[in-house]
Design brief:
alpha+beta, OB fold (Dihydrolipoamide Acetyltransferase, E2P), 5-stranded mixed barrel, 8 helices, 12 strands, 25% helix, globular
């Protein structure tokens, strides 16, 4: 294991995860991703799910070797509102110079943007703070191929979708790990900007659980399936609340452990509409169906 991976491993243990639990999570992720991602890359994802910051300069270099970005990339056509950790590949068709602005606290920020296109459409990419420096590079120009990593989508001007690149996102100019066929396909895209993607108001539960292992926001109606006290192997007591959350697309199980289960039960009643944030998705080893689990950063809002 590399030094940066060892550092991340120790961070996860220090966050309260036992070594046995961590190894079990790694094994589950290996099965879930079907072998296209290394154990080091999986460790990175687990850290994000548990709210542990995995980012440092050395790790970025290793991460590029761990993940096959072509496997996790989506097309611009597939971008929907409130998606996170977006990976895109496209061609720059227009760009603007960075400019400074003053925040409410009187501090100065920096922002820039460019339009990215692939064969399915185009979308505005908004860069913040240190990421704006790349736009000022002589290599950043129209016609250049670029990979977007770790972006998040939101509604921008004229109700069109934008992808924002904050501190945890980045760009790779002229990536070398793409096939010649894909590169040629991007190069031949018409230089005239394609109409930007319109806003999609809601991402359904079926889409979320099929595509993502970490779900930023889930909305639906609930049914309380079960609440019980459980005795662990150590003899300690804990609680488990099982919910069924439904929308027009499907129903999914949500599992809440410990005092989060108790506090959540106080808020909920059958049939109420809720929003739950920051969930992880895993396959149930018995039913082989996806289930969702509360994390340390999860919360419930009753609508």
């Amino acid at each position: 294991m590399s030094s940066s991976m060892e550092e991340l491993y120790q961070k996860l243990l220090a966050s309260g995860i036992s070594e046995q639990q961590l190894e079990q999570e790694v094994e589950r992720k290996v099965k879930e991703f079907g072998g296209f991602m290394t154990k080091q890359g999986i460790l990175f994802i687990i850290a994000k799910e548990h709210g542990v910051n995995p980012y440092n300069e050395a790790f970025y270099k290793e991460l590029d070797e761990m993940i096959d970005y072509d496997e996790v990339s989506i097309t611009i056509e597939e971008v929907k509102e409130q998606m996170t950790n977006i990976v895109l590949l496209g061609k720059i068709i227009s760009c603007s110079k960075p400019y400074e602005f003053t925040r409410k606290d009187s501090s100065v920020g920096k922002v820039s943007s460019f339009t990215l296109a692939d064969w399915t459409g185009s979308i505005k990419i908004v860069l913040w703070e240190e990421n704006t420096q790349l736009v000022e590079s002589e290599f950043f120009r129209e016609g250049q191929i670029v990979r977007v990593i770790g972006g998040y989508s939101k509604k921008g001007e004229n109700d069109s979708l934008e992808i924002h690149i904050g501190k945890k996102g980045r760009l790779i100019l002229a990536p070398q790990d793409i096939s010649n066929k894909l590169r040629d396909r991007l190069i031949t895209i018409n230089e005239t900007p394609i109409p930007e993607k319109p806003i999609v108001s809601k991402f359904q539960i079926r889409d979320l659980i099929e595509k993502y292992s970490f779900i930023k926001k889930l909305q639906g109606e609930i049914e309380i399936e079960e609440f019980k006290e459980i005795t662990k192997k150590s003899g300690d007591k804990t609680f488990l609340l099982k919910l069924l959350v439904s929308d027009e697309s499907t129903t999914v199980h949500v599992n809440i452990w410990g005092m989060d289960a108790v506090e959540s039960l106080k808020l909920l009643e059958n049939g109420c509409s809720i929003i739950i944030t920051n969930l992880t998705a895993r396959k149930n080893s018995y039913t082989q169906e996806k289930e969702l689990f509360f994390t340390a950063k999860s919360s419930i809002q009753v609508l």
